[in-house]
Design a protein that fits this description.
Elements lengths: L12 H4 E6 L8 E8 L2 E8 L7 H15 L9 E7 L3 E7 L3 E3 H6 L5 H20 L2 E2 L8 E4 L5 E3 L5 E2 L5 H19 L7 H10 L11 H8 L2 H24 L8 H13 L1
Antiparallel strand pairs: 1-2, 2-3, 3-5, 4-5, 6-8, 7-10, 8-9
Length: about 270
């Protein structure tokens, strides 16, 4: 009997793809989303809804999304790893499996924790910073697009980047910051802790007057930082600077003479 392992490349397409399952709760406006195994590894598939297949405008749209997202690489954004024909589904964008719960689901079920709040402060903001740095045109941030993975609760942002601009506009930044504030506030409303400082930040993000919101992600990040911790760092830096200044002064000609130096000078004067 020949026990030589089969080459995956020799498998038929139907053998390669197994356990394909539709995920209606993950569906998007123009797409259906599925989970499936490719050579035994769980992945997620995104394909045009049947009513849009074969229409050049929408076929170009999914092609464009693949082109824009394929070269993205960030730990808190779902990455695309392939684009291929899947039996029964047609042309699909293939991403890593991100099985878990959306923030929207956690809010609905009353399962938002302080750890989730921390990750929204840091990991979601890091993802938003990356999106803006790469000038990605994307769908608005919302609790349904923020996923926490099942095992380690890592934050992943889905449905990111369907086009790329030469640059982002102030309006783009204003909208991103407003949407971030709405996501943060929705999460804060779902935990028992008051978090007055974070609520104040979220309220400013959502200010109806864009001019009164944070002007960029950097200023928002500073506002989210722990002010008490920042004050400690400032105090340490001030102390170190004071010590350096003291050492420089003690080694300068302007420092006061010591008793030993004064006695030596007096002895020399008496000798003369």
């Amino acid at each position: 009997m020949d026990n030589t392992p089969l080459n995956p490349l020799e498998h038929s397409s139907s053998e390669k793809w197994t356990e394909i399952e539709h995920l209606p709760e993950w569906d998007e406006e123009f797409y259906h989303v599925y989970t499936a195994k490719k050579f035994g590894k769980w992945l997620m598939l995104k394909t045009l809804r049947p009513e849009y297949k074969g229409i050049p405008e929408y076929e170009q749209m999914i092609d464009k999304e693949f082109e824009v997202r394929y070269n993205l690489a960030h730990p808190h954004i779902i990455m695309i790893n392939d684009y291929e024909e899947v039996p029964g589904l047609g042309r699909c964008i293939i991403t890593d499996d991100v099985y878990g719960d959306s923030l929207a689901k956690l809010i609905k079920e009353g399962k938002v924790t302080e750890e989730h709040i921390q990750k929204i402060q840091h990991q979601l903001l890091d993802a938003l910073d990356y999106i803006q740095a790469n000038h990605l045109q994307h769908h608005p941030l919302s609790p349904s697009r923020v996923i926490f993975t099942e095992n380690i609760g890592n934050l992943k942002l889905i449905d990111v980047g369907f086009d790329q601009k030469a640059h982002i506009t102030p309006k783009d930044t204003e909208e991103d910051i407003r949407n971030y504030g709405e996501v943060l506030m929705a999460a804060l409303d779902a935990v028992p802790t008051a978090h007055p400082r974070l609520r104040k930040v979220a309220e400013r993000c959502m200010n109806p007057d864009p001019a009164k919101r944070y002007h960029d992600v950097s200023s928002l990040r500073m506002a989210l930082a722990d002010r008490k911790l920042n004050n400690i760092y400032v105090a340490i830096i001030a102390f170190l600077l004071a010590m350096i200044a003291l050492l420089l002064w003690l080694n300068s000609p302007y420092r006061p003479a010591t008793l030993e130096e004064t006695a030596t000078e007096t002895s020399v004067e008496n000798t003369h």
